[in-house]
Amino acid sequence: MPYKRKLDTFNTLVDIIARLRAPDGCPWDREQTHLSLKPNLVEECYEALEAIDEGDDQKLCEELGDILMQVALHSQIGREDGHFSVEDVLRSINTKLIRRHPHVFGTAKVSGSQDVIQNWEAIKQEEKGTASVLDGLPKGMPALAYSQAMQRRAARVGFDWAEIEGVLDKLGEEVEELRRCTSHEERVREFGDVLFALVNVARKLDVESEEALQLAAARFRKRFRLMEEDCLRRGVVLSSLPLEEQDKLWEQAKERLSE
Q1: Spatial distance between the Cα atoms of 78 and 18, rounded to a whole number of angstroms
Q2: Which of 70, 61, 64 is nearest to 14 (CA)?
Q3: Does the predicted model carry a pTM greater than 0.85?
Q4: Structural domain count of the chain
Q5: Which of 13, 16, 109 is CA-nearest to residue 68?
Q6: What are 41-76's pLDDT values in tens digits?
């Protein structure tokens, strides 16, 4: 039987998820828990990010729907467990948005986006009763994104270089310290400092370090696959070629992908 409800409302999605989780609903949906759905939520977010990178609006529309499905699923599980409902989720975010925008919904005055950010962080700290602007960052974030988020928060309270030259100088210092390492433990520590300083360079350049590395890895994969394909056509094994010949194949692959 066709589903006879308006398909362009959030309430319809909530009703569909409730039906799927009902005793006579879908076996897979009924088995899910907050924990089992964690990989799905992460995957759907990454797929939405990929759609943004590709500039594919239709794909982004679809992926945002998948994220909403995850929200509705977790909310339904929360309702069944007696912990929270989708109404609680909506009430929480709506209340937060109003409270953290006093310049829109209240009488506060701001001179620009920097004031908005500072007000947001101040209100957030007051709400949560946290002692540090770094509190609340999820430790499960990818390391590059986590580092950049920490650096942004520190910069919001003035702990930052005025110009990018200072950050680049710091990066150079960390590279030199890495050169002088004599033990594996030192190399691990100093390499981490190099990465952290490099992420700071990305922040100052308004570049998302996580995204930049993902794009670089994607470029490497495409170029390397072209090298392998060239070897396959020639009937040779890539690993049997001297490094100089491999470098030539690499440069050719770069040229072909830039055409």
Answers
A1: 11
A2: 70
A3: no
A4: 4
A5: 13
A6: 989 998 998 899 889 999 999 999 999 999 999 999
